[in-house]
Amino acid sequence: MAQLILNHLTKDFGGNGRPAVADVSLTLRRQAFLALLGPSGCGKTTVLRMIAGFEQPSDGSISYGERRLSDAGRALPPEKRNMAMVFQSYALWPHMTVAQNVGYPLKVRGISGAQWQMRVGEALSLVKLTEYAERRPAELSGGQRQRVALARCLVTQPDVVLLDEPLANLDQHLRKAMEETFRAFHERSGATMVYVTHDQAEAMALATDVAVMSEGRLLQVAAPAHIYARPEGRVVGGLIGRGSILRLSLPENGERRLDWPVLREALGPRDVAARAAGGGSLADVPPADVLVRPEQVHRGTDGIRMRVVSSVFEGERFALDLALAMASG
Ligand SMILES: Nc1ncnc2c1ncn2[C@@H]1O[C@H](COP(=O)(O)OP(=O)(O)OP(=O)(O)O)[C@@H](O)[C@H]1O
C-alpha cells in the first residue's frame, strides 16, 4: 500500500535565520490521519505546501509510494499529484452554486453528464448538503461553506488530503460538529490526511498519528494516546494535554514513571530526597522535568499541601490552578 514519505525534508527561504523546515523525516501509511501540531511559525504550513507542490524543498525529498514527487532538483506540479488541499478560507467560487463548486474539479478533468451528477450528489450527501445544492456560497454559514470545500475535495478521489487549519474560522460548537464530518470523510475517502492545527484537543480527537514540530524540526510522532502518556521533552509535554512541568532532582533509578512516594520525597525537603537516592546528596543531581497531569492529582491524607491559586468552573468540573510551596504550577 502506498505511503507518503518525507525524507530529510528541508526548506530554507534564504533569510538569515534558521530554515523554516529542517530535516523532517516521516512515513505515513495510506489512510493515516496525521495531525501536524506546533507553535506559530514552526513550519507546519510549509511542510503542507511542500507536500502539495506549492513549494519546492531546498533539500530532502517527498515520495508517494515508489513515485518521487519532489526534491531540490525537480518537482511534480500540484495538479499531477492527485492531492487536494482544504484551506481555512474555503476558497469557493462565489458565482457558482454549491453543486457547481463541488463539481468544478470534475469538469476540469472532462467529466460531465450522469457521471458528474452522480459524483457530485454522493459528495454532497456525505457532507449533508444535498438540499443546498442550488445555493450560492454567500447564502451558507461558515460550517456549511467548509463542508462544500470538503465535498469538492472528495469528488476527485484524492490519494492525499491536506488541510490547513480548516476549522479555525468556526465557533467552538461548530468545530465539534465538523470533527464528526472529518471523521466520516476520512473513513469514506480512505485518503491519507495531513491536518495542520494549533489546537491539540482537535488533533487528539481526529488523528491516528500526531506530529509535533518546533522551530522547523519534528520533535515526536506517535499515536494520540502514546504522545499524551509519553511526550518527549518540555515542548511536546507543554503542548499536548494539560499539565504542569516541575523541575525536580530525583533519585536515578531509570524509571520514567514515578511512584507517589518517590515524587513526594522529591517535592519535600532535600535531605529526605537524598535518602531516597540511597543516602547520597541530591544537590549534585541535575534536575529533571516531571510532567504532572490533572487526572494524576488526588486529594488525600497522604499528600502534600498546596495552595489554590484559581478555580474556574468548566461545566462538568472545576479547573484548579495549584501552587506547591517549593515550585510554581
Ligand atoms: N514564502 C516565505 N518566504 C519567507 N519566509 C517564509 C515564507 N513562508 C513561510 N516563511 C517562514 O517560515 C517559517 C515557518 O512558517 P509556516 O507558515 O510554515 O509556520 P506555521 O507553523 O504554519 O505557522 P502558523 O501556525 O502561524 O501558520 C516562519 O518563520 C515564516 O516566517
Automatic annotation (TrEMBL):
Question: Where is the ABC transporter domain positioned along the sequence?
Answer: 4-240
Q: Which residues cross the membrane?
A: none
One GO CC annotation, please?
A: ATP-binding cassette (ABC) transporter complex
The compartments listed are:
Cell inner membrane
Gene3D superfamilies, alphabetized: P-loop containing nucleotide triphosphate hydrolases
- The keyword Iron belongs to this UniProt entry's keyword annotation: yes
User: Which N-terminal residues, if any, form the signal peptide?
Assistant: none
**Primary location:** membrane
Which Pfam families does the annotation name? Answer: ABC_tran (PF00005)
Keyword tags:
ATP-binding, Cell membrane, Ion transport, Iron, Iron transport, Membrane, Nucleotide-binding, Transport
Q: Which InterPro entries match?
A: AAA+_ATPase, ABC_SmlMolc_Importer, ABC_transporter-like_ATP-bd, ABC_transporter-like_CS, ABC_transpr_FbpC, P-loop_NTPase
Membrane topology type, per the record? Peripheral membrane protein
**Keyword Amino-acid biosynthesis set for record:** no
GO terms for MF: ABC-type ferric iron transporter activity; ATP binding; ATP hydrolysis activity
Q: Which family does it belong to?
A: Belongs to the ABC transporter superfamily.
Question: What's the protein called, per UniProt?
Answer: ATP-binding component of ABC transporter
What species does this protein belong to? Sinorhizobium fredii (strain NBRC 101917 / NGR234)
Query: What lineage is on file?
Result: Bacteria, Pseudomonadati, Pseudomonadota, Alphaproteobacteria, Hyphomicrobiales
